User: Fold this.
Amino acid sequence: MTTSSNENIAAQHYEAARATLGDAQSTQDLQTALRHLTAAAEAGHARAQLDLGTLYATGQGVVERDYPTARLWLESAAEKDNADAHFNLGVGYAAGWFTALPDYEEAARHYAAASDQGVAAAALNLGMLHYHTQVAAPDPETAYEQFVLAAAAGLPEGHYSLGVCLSEGHGTEASRDLAFEQYLIAAEKGHVSAQFNLGMYYATGGGTVERDLLEAERWFVAAAQQGHPRAQAALEHLHDGNQS
Assistant:
């Protein structure tokens, strides 16, 4: 059988799996979908290998959680340079699914492969590994550069992490004002720590940010409503200061 024929058969099994899952109403339907998905994966279909590996990693549907099998299928997809497979492998290695302890070096390798293909969450996670010095040779500039990619994709955590780097001068020149700009974007997207930080900016003033207690209160309230551990105390301190 030719390579083209194998690819066609794999694609047919994958489409059958997707169609069956879309209309699944019973355990039998799910088992049928799993058989098609497995057949597609065994025939080399990268997306089927990704989906099958993800199913085994999460234990969804009729599949029990099985990390060794998940790793097998995700690695097969990653060998075909499937970006999502690289990302899921990164998650698995960082979480310690595949090894006795988390393997941050392997996680970083897979996150880097996914980030290079434009997976924003992989860029964020890779940046975190470098920022928190969880890899053998942590690089502040790599952390900053990856956070830039995550922020460019619109991830609130990417903007917040950029703000932290700019505030601390981590991997880039420190700038309180540029940090504020990133915190503002993240806060407007609902990031609780960014909301708290904005409250602190407005409560104290400085740089291009003028002291504004009403704005400080607004952001402290937003952070407190999301359960930020220091927001309520900051809000009470703000009120006490207004009364004195």
Q: What stands out?
A: The chain has 13 helices and no strands. The CA atoms of residues 17 and 33 lie 4 Å apart. The radius of gyration is 23 Å.
